[in-house]
Amino acid sequence: MSNAFKRITIFTFRQLLFPDIQQEVVLLCAEKNGQGPEGIDVVELNGLEDLSLQNNNVDKRIIFKSIDHSTEKWTQYYLTVNEIKLIRKLRKNESLHTLGEFASVDVGIVTGMNNFFVLRENEKNQASLNGFTRQIVTRSAHLGGVIFRESDWRTISQMELPTHLLSLPDIPFHELPKEAQAYIKIGESNGWNTGYKCSIRKRWYIVPSVWVPDAFMLRQIHRYPKIILNQSEATCTDTIHRVRFFKGAKGKLVTAAFLNSLTFAFAEIIGRSYGGGVLELEPREAERLPIPYEYAESLDLEKIDKLLLSKDIDAVLNITDRALLQDGLSLSKKDVNALRQIWKKLYRRRIERR
Questions:
Q1: Same domain for 252 and 334?
Q2: pLDDT per residue over 187-212, tens digit each?
Q3: Which letter, b or e, does each residue of 90-116 get, where b requires 16 or more Cβ atoms within 10 Å of its Cβ?
Q4: Which of 226, 254, 273, 318 lies 20 to 30 Å from 304, alpha-carbon distance?
Q5: DSSP letters of 193-212?
Q6: Are residues 195 and 219 in the same domain?
Q7: Element (H, E) at 283
């Protein structure tokens, strides 16, 4: 359809135009007069008032870029012509793999009512539900590094955060222990069984699809995406994605290979951003992210984990970009620096829309 227009200009706004809606608004201007498509560009304005200030000078500073009919979002057109050329060249690089070649990404557990199904340590004990819960992680903030250990789960559990998922046997109500029956009756007295997800189940108090993933993955991202190797017995709610590695794939290599400026840049282009500075990756989008998997052997995941826990992502990228992109993919230092700038440019643009 875009080929029907000579030029397409997308006006975006740094300010959220509707205060009660955390969603970016754009103004699309498509010009049909003239010969052949010249391309597309994005003009960034502060707010609606800037539209009235626009004049012919706008056209003079717009540089139209050729349109790529791929599944990437129009976010890529915030980039310069040279940056877009680099992204398109790397998309065709046969040395790159996608995450989906090594792992499947699935949503976390949808309980239908976390207030009932996800308990704190003291709540579990007070309800006498020992033996009827499973370990769970409910917030991405609890996944600070790239390795989640059993000790990490115990730490957040001892902080009296919700870390226990109700996991009852799938049997008739009257066959359940009295303690479980009593807890279910409390839920019903609060009307928690009437919510949509609970009401469509055969037994509303049985949560489906409870399995422990090989790794976690951030779903809603503030600064950068990552995979977190799961060395605990915990699963997660749907605020976090669950990752299963395919047979033969090495989880440590996938986790390490994910942390680089190239993958970060593509995440900003493939994912979707919302008002409030959030980048979201749905499972199928995450599986399309490129990773330089076979070059991750030399990386020390324990060292990377410690750096991330100290919030030093630039130190991590200095290590991983050199090993994965320069030494591995044989990219020039100039291209590697350009990829990091692409990621930072799109990240800054995203968080400005809070």
A1: yes
A2: 999 999 999 999 999 999 999 999 99
A3: beeeeebbebbebbbbbbbbebbbbeb
A4: 273
A5: GGSHHHHTSSSTT--S----
A6: no
A7: helix 283-287
Torsion sign (Cα): 254, 257, 263, 264 = positive
Domains in the chain, number = 3
CA–CA separation, 148 vs 215, rounded Å? Answer: 8
Strand partners, 272: 280
Pairing of strands 235-236, 240-245: unpaired
Cβ burial, residue 141 (10 Å; 0-12/13-18/19+): exposed
Backbone φ and ψ of 146, nearest 5°: -120, 10
Tokens at residue 218, please?
């951030």
Kindly tell me the burial class for residue 74, based on how many C-beta atoms sit within 10 Å of its own C-beta (0-12, 13-18, 19 or more).
middle
* Backbone Cα Rg of the chain: 24
φ/ψ (deg, to 5) at 66: -65, 145
Contact 109, 167 (CB under 8 A): no
190 and 248 together in one domain: no
216, 226 Cβ separation under 8 angstroms: no
Same domain for 195 and 129, yes or no, is yes
pLDDT in tens, 124-166: 999 999 999 999 999 999 999 999 999 999 999 999 999 999 9
Cα 200 to Cα 113, 207, 209, 236, distances in angstroms: 13, 11, 15, 22
Local structure of 7: helix, strand or coil? strand
